[in-house]
Specification:
The protein contains eight helices and six strands, in the order H-H-E-H-E-H-E-H-H-H-E-E-E-H. It is an alpha/beta fold and 239 residues long. It has a single domain, classed as Rossmann fold (3-Layer(aba) Sandwich). The longest helix has 17 residues. The N and C termini lie close together (4 Å). The structure holds iron/sulfur cluster.
């Protein structure tokens, strides 16, 4: 697949629904494409859709080892319901080694460094074995995500990125979850609209933004997985 073809397919894909985008990705990249998920509401809707497009799709998660028990419980339910094994990717530094190397509670002093160690580096390693990855980001979640295309070249990690839910709203996601009885994280029912690590996630108060509970006390809104790097020359994608 060449660079111009990405541009062409990008335009066409804007009118596709999420299942059509998923079908294109599975057809194009076979076993070299995988869904990346932290199992938020969007991720759960996407996983359910994927299971209806292709039974044995690949799904991976970055397990920071600081996740909520409810999130680990949800992973078990996903594997049972969809008959798949979640590929779990870990930091090269177990939590105790991170503490030895960088001091206690790095997340409270330098969350960017902590996210780099526990999320970005493991993701980069995982993406190195793929030609495309599928994420469940929506354009209206953060300003960084507003420019996401349904199919795009991921400059930061050097492969194709597929965002089937780019133009969906939160209401559409939740309607899908209810209509298809999709499992979801129990914390969503306790005012946690966005769920990450235990150290950096709190419930939101009435009227707060859905991501206000992530990294409270910091200006940070993204862990770095979906931040778009300034465009250099687009590399070639070889079919
Ligand atoms: S969300 Fe918090 S605890 Fe998790 S990797 Fe990032 S800074 Fe560390």
């Amino acid at each position: 697949m060449k660079q111009q073809q990405i541009a062409q397919i990008q335009l066409a894909a804007e009118s596709w629904n999420p299942r059509q985008v998923l079908a294109w990705a599975f057809g194009k990249f076979g076993n070299e494409v995988a869904i990346s998920s932290a199992f938020g509401a969007e991720g759960m809707a996407l996983i359910d859709m994927a299971s209806r497009v292709q039974k044995d799709f690949r799904l991976f998660t970055i397990d920071t080892e600081f996740l909520f028990p409810e999130t680990y419980n949800l992973m078990d339910r996903i594997e049972a319901r969809y008959g798949i094994t979640i590929e779990k990717v870990y930091s090269l530094l177990p939590p105790e080694e991170q503490e030895r190397a960088h001091g206690a509670a790095l997340w409270a002093r330098n969350p960017d460094q902590c996210c780099n160690l526990r999320k970005v580096e493991p993701l980069r390693r995982k993406l190195g074995e793929l030609r495309a990855w599928i994420a469940s980001i929506r354009r209206d979640q953060t300003s960084v995500r507003a420019g996401a295309q349904k199919i795009e070249w991921d400059e930061k990690f050097g492969l194709v990125k597929v965002n089937p839910l780019a133009d969906w709203s939160s209401a559409q996601v939740w309607r899908y979850i209810r209509e298809h009885d999709v499992p979801y994280n129990a914390l969503h029912d306790q005012n946690y609209p966005s769920i990450g690590c235990t150290h950096c996630t709190r419930a939101v108060k009435s009227g707060e933004d859905a991501r206000a509970g992530r990294w409270p006390g910091f200006a940070k809104t993204e862990c770095g997985l979906h931040i778009i790097e300034p465009a250099a020359s687009l590399p070639k994608i070889v079919a």
